[in-house]
């Protein structure tokens, strides 16, 4: 089944404490679209807002009324990417005075009046206790939210249901990302609610799989370097030979993120002249 699953439910109620409304923004990077989650028995807390797609608001209101709710109590965001905070203005237009919070960190442009949330801070709703967990790597401002009552974590884009996470060149950092996965491993965890794709029940196995996937990729890149492949394009052509060419630009970002991590680790050296492809070699 494709990652962009057109049959993915538009709304769902996975448990008595967790409801889900789809952001209706399907795509190569978002899969079926962004999941927005409503937490609590009453006065629900909303995690993420989707991209601001016009059809989202009527769907959101319909789901609220099905649950007997009139409005969200507040919004907390996982990170600054448009498909997570793009719906803030739309929701504020509908629900006056709606409070919104995220970790304010290296942000250049944000909607007005966003409160700061820090690592370890607790957000309480009706029957739900959420703890913010700073998990940089995909984005430097990324927070996951741990739901104590269910031993569950809302992973935003750190772990996805059906795809691997992109580590963007500017704000991403693969070393940070692996550290964030290891931090999640340390939580008392049973379930993952990702920002894209279905609920993941075996949380620890999924985190392990994500770490193993990155370590395997790292081994492939080191092998390519030792065989004398010294450009990202050459490494992508070999390592992603089975993957459609349309995904190679994303693959190139991933390889670059690995190379930067290996440079930080002291295992690889990189050099590039302006306008020319950078060249990479094993160190020492
Ligand atoms: Zn993102």
**Major beta sheet summary:** 7 strands, mixed
Order of helices and strands: EEEEHEHHEEEEEEHEHHHEE
Number of helices: 7
Number of strand segments: 14
How big a fraction of the residues is strand? Answer: 15-25%
Helix content: 25-40%
Q: How far apart lie the N and C ends? A: 45 Å
Shape: elongated
The low-confidence runs, each spanning 5 or more residues with pLDDT under 50, are: none
Bound small molecules, which ones?
A: zinc ion
Structural class of the secondary structure composition?
Answer: alpha/beta
Strand order of the largest sheet: 1-2-3-4-5-6-7
Q: Name the average pLDDT.
A: 95
Radius of gyration: 20 Å
Tell me what you see in this structure:
The mean pLDDT is 95. The strands form three sheets. Strands 1-2-3-4-5-6-7 form a seven-stranded mixed beta sheet, covered by helices on one side. A five-stranded mixed beta sheet has the order 8-9-10-11-12, with no helix packed on it. By secondary structure, the chain is α/β, with parallel strands linked by helices. It contains seven helices and 14 strands.
Summarize the model shown:
Helix content is 30%, strand content 21%. The chain is of the alpha/beta class. Bound molecules: zinc ion.
Task: List key phrases describing it.
single chain, 284 residues, alpha/beta, five-stranded mixed beta sheet, 7 helices, binds zinc ion
